[in-house]
Amino acid sequence: MQGALQNCGLEVAFRLGREDAEVTAKTLGRVTPHTTSHRSGTHTEGAGMGEQWEEQVPHLQHLRPRHAFIRKPLGHLPWPLDLWWHRPPSQLCKVKTMPVPDPAVSAEAVAEIEEGYLRKYFRTQVEVEETLAGFRQEMRQRRRRVEVAEGA
């Protein structure tokens, strides 16, 4: 889904963990590349790019349920406005999604889905061991053929 949204030019982030928020802050956020610092004796206080990125991380970490940030592209301004007014290529919006009720599904239906999933995607230990034994046998045969070919 994320790829489909990116294809439309949209970047979307719901509440994120620390590491994901650090990465996403650099995708959604914007910083001023100029650093501002104040020197007082041997102590320097500043708000460089690193601090600006860091300032955006908690906003992504602490989003409430159903809240998200979306960076959307802005269209080009018509001529002649584009000659005088330069706006950024995208805009960051904070949105709240519509409530989606939890589905009401019977226990029987859930059990049927789980059983079908288990049958289709899971194997018993015996089946896995037999498959692995077959792979190992095939690899041994390939190694022997290579050794014979190299010895010839």
Secondary structure layout:
Layout: H1 2-7, E1 11-13, H2 18-28, E2 37-40, E3 43-46, H3 49-61, E4 67-73, H4 81-84, E5 90-96, H5 107-121, H6 125-151
Antiparallel strand pairs: 1-4, 2-3, 4-5
Low-confidence stretches: none
Helical coverage, percent range: 40-55%
The largest sheet, given as strand count, sense and whether it forms a barrel, is: 3 strands, antiparallel
| Mean residue pLDDT | 86
Rg, rounded, reads 28 Å
* β-strand amount: 15-25%
Order of helices and strands: HEHEEHEHEHH
Strand order of the largest sheet: 1-4-5
Number of strands: 5
Distance between the ends? 54 Å
Output the keywords.
three-stranded antiparallel sheet; 50% helix; 16% strand; 2 domains; two-stranded antiparallel ribbon; 6 helices; 152 residues; alpha+beta
